Amino acid sequence: MVTILFDGIAYGMLLFVLACGLSVTLGLMNFVNLAHGVFALVGGYVASWLMNRHGVSFFLCLPAAFLAAAAVGAVSERLLFRRLYASSHLDQVLFTIGIVFMSIAAVEYVMGPQQQRIVLPPELRGRVEILGGSIGVYRLFIVALCGVVALALQYLLIGTRFGSRLRAAVDDARTARGLGIEVNTVFAITFAVGSGLAGLGGALGADVLGMDPHFPIKFLVYFLIVVGVGGTTGIAGAFVASLLLGIADIAGKYYVPEVGAFIIYAVMVAVLIVRPQGLFARAR
Does residue 119 sit within a domain? Predict the structure, then answer.
């Protein structure tokens, strides 16, 4: 029981890091970016390439994956996505899903269709006994690292001047510009950080989830479920939703494997019936 619970928490934490950038861009910036998984793909492939081709330490590959995905996100936001902020959600969906399929084809052409291999360092292998359960060391690492990320993000959005500027830019961009806030710069930084976190999640999840060119489309539904269940008010909703869905998914696959893959969808439907705006819906 302890092992299943902890594996579910680790999986949920990983989902949070992968999906929280989409939660921010959709909930705070009102931009539907279905290409969010592409940045996770960038992070996973950068980490794999650095480790397998150049022998870089796994611990150094993680910040490299974040920075690479953040850089790609910043360039993409400036050249592509910024033009769609004022467009309808349908236009945003069609454009970004097109980016997904183009990216899949490009990565498969350049890198091949095979899954990327991540070899964990010796200190992250093996298992430890906690409360009578056998816990993977790497999953402990994921929980600790993702917990720090969650706290840092919450502080950034709630306790800093940048977070205040972001909320002001979202609520009324015209007034924010009149107060001297560089709205375009705030959105660009936010988009880059969200993309970087997806890249970090891609690098962390390569060993657990697998990493191949079709990653952005395979996990797109999971990202959307996290945002839908958590609500689009910020980080707290995505965090709680990720933990709930991660535990439900792992427990379902263990206890009722014949229908385990559908448990996460059942949880989503149940939550949205009771709370159509998500667990942390913004008061209107």
Answer: yes
